[in-house]
Predict the 3D structure of the following.
Amino acid sequence: MIPLFHDFTDETVLVFGGGPVGARKARRFAREARVVVVSPAFADRAFGGADLVRAAPAPGDVGAWLDRADPALVVAATDDPEVNAAVARAAREREVLVNRTDESGSRDAGSVVVPATVRDDPVAVAVSTGGTSPALSKHLRERLEADLDGAGAMAELTADIRADLQARGVAPDRRRDAVRAVVRDERVWKALDTGPSKAKDTAADVISDVRGEPS
């Protein structure tokens, strides 16, 4: 499987299953997409503002639900393997991405694995074991959380630096060297803790050193 990031803004994600797994999937996708959860009952969990539809579709009814919702992604998270298989089959027939939560390891074409994710917007790092070990994915995510502290602020700072250097007509290779120097400089990372103004001044000093300019 090849990892990709997909923008679900203005898309619909259809989740079959209202248990803890379905609730977790709903919360994950509700940050961007409209989420519809179909289930005869719902766990006492937060669903992230998803639309909850109380129904118990039989395997033969699943296709009609997909046709009505027109989802970009379908999640099969029920405790009935036959229903989950019907969800996966209906999704493949309609060329819709599907995440089947009761399977691990090798998967059919069109299936996706939802990874453990660490975020410091706009930075996101995803960890996956291909669905074989969710516990390991979670452990690795927790280890990465400390390493990503401040990464979002660094991404915004360097985006501003790149735009400024480009506007000033700095050559692409020199822009690249300058941004790399900023990203690798511990002084800039420390300055981010005190606010964007201090970090910007520190980054300017780093860039001056790289370009051989007087401070």
